[in-house]
Description:
By secondary structure, this protein is α+β, with helices and mostly antiparallel strands. It has helices at residues 2-15, 24-28, 52-61, 87-97, 122-131; strands at residues 41-43, 48-49, 66-70, 85-86, 111-112, 118-119. Residues 114-115, 132, 134-135 line the site of 2-acetamido-2-deoxy-beta-D-glucopyranose (NAG).
Amino acid sequence: MITFFVVAVACLVSVLPTATYADVCSYVSARDCSAYGVKPVCGTNGVTYDNHCKLATAYCQNHQIQKAHEGACGSVGSATTTKPVNGGQIALDIFCADLADITCPAGGSRVCGSDHKYYENLCTFDKARCANRSLHLGSGCMKRSY
Ligand SMILES: *[C@@H]1O[C@H](CO)[C@@H](O)[C@H](O)[C@H]1NC(C)=O
């Protein structure tokens, strides 16, 4: 009985994410989106996605894709006046929800944020964007600061 428990725990631990991710899209693209259930969302490309995860994955392949509205495209009562939401923000939502499980690689190319601070790489920059959604890539970085 105890042996069974130990084996079960060992299996559970082995499926937890241990990989490092370069950025939001490398994380999102590694997701099993079927785990996010079926909550249809309409893309600005006219495609209905099963959930935000699938729309975010599509965005990561084609950055033109935005969320048009919740619900299937052309569904009754779909809010045509809703302002489209950038697919990058949807992808960031998924990344930020799992922040504690995400390990950023060490090193890489540092990037400059709109807060004029350097970040070690895109992954650490994306983690900072979870705390400040106004943050974007910028210029004029003066001092090294992670
Ligand atoms: C969030 O980012 C914006 C844009 O770079 C910046 O102006 C602002 O100071 C940041 N806010 C915080 C709390 O760091």
